[in-house]
Amino acid sequence: MKTKALLKKYLPLVCVVVLYIVIALVRQAKIVNNYHIQLLMFAGINIMMTVSLNIVNGFTGQFCIGHAGFMSLGAYGAAVVSTLVFKGYAVAPGLQIPIFLLSLLCGGIIAAFIGLLIGLPTLKLKGDYLAIVTLAFGEIVRAMLRLIEPIGAARGMIGIPTYSNLAWILTFVVLTLWVARNFIYSKYGRACISIRDNEIAADAMGVQTTRYKIIAFCFAAFIAGVAGGLYAHVISFIQPDSFSFSKSSDFLVYLYAGGAGSLSGSIIGALLLTILPEALRFMSNWRLVIYSLVLICVMLFRPSGLCGGKELPCLRINRQELYPNTVFKQKQEKALSIEERR
Predict the structure, then answer these.
(1) Coil/strand/helix, residue 267
(2) At what angle do helices 67-79 and 34-53 cross, to 10 degrees?
(3) For residue 186, what is the DSSP state?
(4) How is 120-185 classified by DSSP, letter by letter?
(5) What is the rounded CA–CA span in Å between residue 315 and residue 318?
(6) Residues 161, 231: contact at Cβ < 8 Å?
(7) 224-245 as b/e: b if 16+ CB within 10 A
C-alpha cells in the first residue's frame, strides 16, 4: 500500500524523466533536430510564463496585461549576472551551473522586487484601471531598457552564455508547477481564490485582500523573472523590443485559450499554441489564418478555455489530505459505524 502511494505521488516526476529520455533517444536517432528541441524549450518557458500569469489573472481575478515586463527584468537581471559580472574571468566548468542558478535567482528576485514596488500603489485599483497600469508598466520597462547603455540600450545584449538546455527547462517547469500547485491549495491560494470569486465578501470575512493580491503579484513576478532568465540563456541575445506588448498578449492568449484558473489549461494552451504556428509553417501565410481560426473556434465552443475549471489528476490535491480530522474523517467513521451495525 505504501509503495502504491509512493508510486502515485512520484508518477508525474517519473513521467517527465521518461519523456526526457525518449526525447534524448529520438534526438540521437536524428528523428528530431536542434530546431525541434529549441521549440520545446520555448514551449517550456511559455508554460512557466502562462502559469505565473494564471496566478494573477486566473486565480486572483486581477487583470495584468504587461507580464512581459517582468520577463524582461528577469532576462536582463540574469544576463547581467552571468555576462557582465563575470566578464573577463575564466569561469571553470564546475562553476558554470552555480553561476547559472545564481543568475536565475537574481533575475527572479529583481522581477519580484519591482512587482512589489508596482503592486503596493496599484493593486487597490480594479478591472480596466489595473490593466492600464500594468500595460503602462510593461512599456515603461521596455523604454527604460532602451536607454541604458551598459546593457546595450536599444541594440540589446549579445554574448549571453547558452547555459539553458532542455533538461534545465523541464526541471524548472516541473518545479514551477509543483510550487504553484502547493501555493494555490495553501491558505494563501484559497484567499486569492476568494478574492477572485467575490472581493467584497472576502474583505467582509476578514481576508486582507490587498496583502494577498500583492503576495500573488510578487510570486507571479518571481516565476516570470526566472522564465526570462532561462529565455536569455537559450537565445544568447536579448533586446528590449523582444518584450513588447505583443509578447504580453501572446501569454494572455495562451492563458485564456487553455483555461484561466487551471494549471492544466496553462500547460495545454502554451504547448499547443507555441507548437501550432511552427507545425503550420508549410502553409506559408495561411498559417496565421488557420491559427486565428483555431482560436475563434476555441472561444466559440469552449468559452472557458480547453481546461476551464478542470485539472489533470497529478495537479490536484486529495482534499482528504487537507481535512484529515474533520469532514472526511467524520464521514468515514459514520460509514464504518453503519456497516458495523449491519
Answers:
(1) helix
(2) 120
(3) S
(4) HHHTT--HHHHHHHHHHHHHHHHHHHTT-GGGTGGG-EE-------HHHHHHHHHHHHHHHHHHHT
(5) 10
(6) no
(7) bbbbbbbbbbbbbebbbebbbe
Which string of b and e fits 172-204 if b means at least 16 CB within 10 Å?
Answer: bbbebbeebbebbbeebbebbbbbbeebeebee
Cell of 21: 529520455
Cell numbers at residue 5, please?
502511494
Sort residue 90 into left (φ over 0), alpha (ψ -120 to 50) or beta.
beta
Tens digits of residue pLDDT in 303-322: 888 887 778 777 776 555 44
Which candidate, 231, 220, 251, places its Cα nearest to that of 76? 231
Taking the complete model, does pTM exceed 0.70, yes or no? Answer: yes
- Quick one: cell of 17? 524523466
Collapsing DSSP to helix, strand or coil, 285 comes out as: coil
Cell digits of residue 236: 544568447
Cβ atoms < 10 Å from Cβ of 6: 10
At which residue does the C-alpha cell 495562451 appear? 254
Q: Which residue has the cell 537574481?
A: 106
Q: Which H or E element spans position 69? A: helix 67-79
232, 52 in Cβ contact below 8 A? no
The count of other CB atoms within 10 Å of the CB of residue 301 is 8
For 127-174, the pLDDT digits (tens) are 678 888 888 988 899 999 999 988 888 898 988 988 899 999 999 999
C-alpha 63/C-alpha 122 separation (Å) is 12
